[in-house]
Amino acid sequence: MIWNELPKPFTILAPMEGVTDVVFRGVVAKAGRPDLFYTEFTNVSSFASERGRHDALERLEVKPEDKPIIAQIWGKNPEHFAMLARELEGLGFAGLDLNFGCPDRHVNKAGGGAAMIRTPELASECIKHARENTNLPVSVKTRLGFTYIEEYKTWIPFLLNHHLAALTVHLRTRKEMSKVAAHYELIPELIKMRNEISPETKLIINGDIKDKKMVKELSEKYPEIDGFMIGRGVFANPFCFTDHEPTKEELLNLFYYHLDLYDERAAKIHYPYEPLKHFFKVYINSFDGASDLRVKLMDCKTTAELRQVLDDFKKA
User: Fold this and answer.
1) Cα–chain-centroid distance for residue 97?
2) Residue 294 and residue 165 in one domain
3) pLDDT tens track for 180-219
4) Interior/surface letters 124-150, b for 16+ CB within 10 angstroms, e for the rest
5) pLDDT at 13 over 90
6) In terms of DSSP bridges, do strands 95-100 and 138-143 run parallel, antiparallel, or are they unpaired?
7) Same domain flag for 151 and 202
8) Residues 138 and 84: beta-carbon distance below 8 Å
9) Nearest partner of 309 among 259, 274, 275, 267, judged by Cα
């Protein structure tokens, strides 16, 4: 089982919608990969429908450099969790993770993500149906609660009583989003819960973790935590899973590589251009002229135009 093969502490790139697809995972792998990748979110009900299956399978594309990788899936229909669980092993995944923590209001309105915290019996059925239809280890990613921090006192033990392969806890509630500091003060109690209820479950912490240095510091303070998940930290430094401090030239070269991977994928499927703009600040920051360069890049409409602006900047 993959969870027993990872080092301690291990690192994970957090699943992020519109971010951690096959292209950006390729970028992070080149910069310095984590021990484990997750996919972006895949809706089990989309996979269960003829209309949505093609899109779901595109989200679940795996390249050799992605492995080991966990499929992150969400929804509220237990039968649909079962349908997708049956397929994942054949697609190259090392495990499947049920998303019970996404704070997106559209996802929550549909009954998925963090809304599962409010429907524990349904969450249990989804875990059961997924587990009964795969040989892969089943894990969950969640938050402390939906509205109140105190909800973790019942919600986390409820999940641990399912004896999951791994449990990732984002140390905020759904209501808090990312507007407050992660509640690291609760880590000792989460460890105690895990140790008492399901010591075999790998416990992973998520929230405000920036880089490998911070992982080391947290691991020294909380040695019983098995893994650490980095999300937004990758936007500040795509080399965050290494000890390397990238130069301006290295960041620009990584941007060119991102564009190459984008073009490769866009040649195969409909792959929109606009989302690329969300990544500009990953590579263009913290050096003289970065702000002006980003303004010029935002006016571009193709990757060819982006490359030309980058080429002109390097020559200047």
Assistant:
1) 10
2) no
3) 999 999 999 999 999 999 999 999 999 999 999 999 999 9
4) bbbbebbbebbebbbbbbbbbbbeebe
5) yes
6) parallel
7) yes
8) no
9) 259
- Beta strands 227-230 and 10-13: pairing type? parallel
Q: What are the structure tokens assigned to 31, written together?
A: 């910069």
Residue 102 annotated among the catalytic residues of the structure: yes
The pLDDT of residue 111: 87
Strands (DSSP E) contained in the chain are 10-13, 36-38, 42-43, 69-74, 95-100, 138-143, 166-170, 202-206, 227-230
Q: Is 312 exposed, middle or buried (0-12, 13-18, 19+ CB in 10 A)?
A: exposed
Last residue of a domain, one of 207, 236, 265: 236
User: Does residue 211 form part of some domain?
Assistant: yes
Cβ–Cβ under 8 Å, residues 36 and 29: no
For the chain, the residue count is 316
pLDDT digits (tens, 9 = 90+) for 236-278: 999 999 999 999 999 999 999 999 999 999 999 889 999 999 9
Name all contacts of 176-184 with Cβ < 8 Å and 24+ positions apart.
177/103, 178/207, 178/232, 181/208, 182/206, 182/207, 182/208, 183/144, 183/149, 183/207, 184/208, 184/218
Domain that holds residue 268: 248-315
Q: For position 314, what pLDDT does the model report?
A: 86
**93 contacts 62 by C-beta, under 8 angstroms:** yes
Amino acid at 10: F
State the sign of the Cα–Cα–Cα–Cα dihedral 128, 76, 203, 13.
positive
Does 177 share its domain with 285? no
- Write down the pLDDT at residue 12: 98
- Per-residue confidence at 110, pLDDT binned at 50, 70, 90? confident
- 114 CB-near residues (< 8 Å, 6+ apart): 100, 101, 102, 103, 107, 108, 142, 143, 146, 174
In tens, the pLDDT along 124-178 reads 999 999 999 999 999 999 999 999 999 999 999 999 999 999 999 999 999 998 8
